[in-house]
Write a structure and sequence with these properties.
Largest sheet: 2 strands, parallel
Strand order of the largest sheet: 1-2
InterPro entries: SGNH_hydro_sf
Protein name: GDSL esterase/lipase
Order of helices and strands: HEEHH
Oligomer: single chain
Family: Belongs to the 'GDSL' lipolytic enzyme family.
Number of domains: 1
Number of strands: 2
Radius of gyration: 16 Å
Shape: elongated
Organism: Aegilops tauschii subsp. strangulata
Structural class: alpha+beta
Strand content: 5-15%
Helix content: 25-40%
Distance between the termini: 35 Å
Number of helices: 3
Length: 76
């Protein structure tokens, strides 16, 4: 949750697209105004904001071992 707060993901329990009555992609579904504040796109798939948290964690830490990936592959 700390990472979510740092990345402004404030809607962690709701999906951005669709709802329990109308699934994403069906006529009448609604889409949120700002997907970057949601953790779930459609109740199954993460949003780009979540993928960014994951990628940053692997590239810059703390989700890599022994070193963050960015430190093992310097830019050319």
């Amino acid at each position: 949750q700390q990472l979510a707060q740092q990345n402004r993901i404030t809607n962690t329990l709701l999906s951005c697209c669709g709802n329990q009555t109308v699934p994403c992609g069906r006529p009448g579904c609604t889409v949120c105004d700002d997907p970057s504040t949601y953790g779930s796109w459609d109740g199954t798939h993460p949003t780009e904001a979540v993928y960014k948290v994951i990628a940053d964690g692997v590239l810059h830490g703390p989700h890599s071992s022994p070193l963050p990936l960015a430190k093992t592959c310097p830019p050319s």
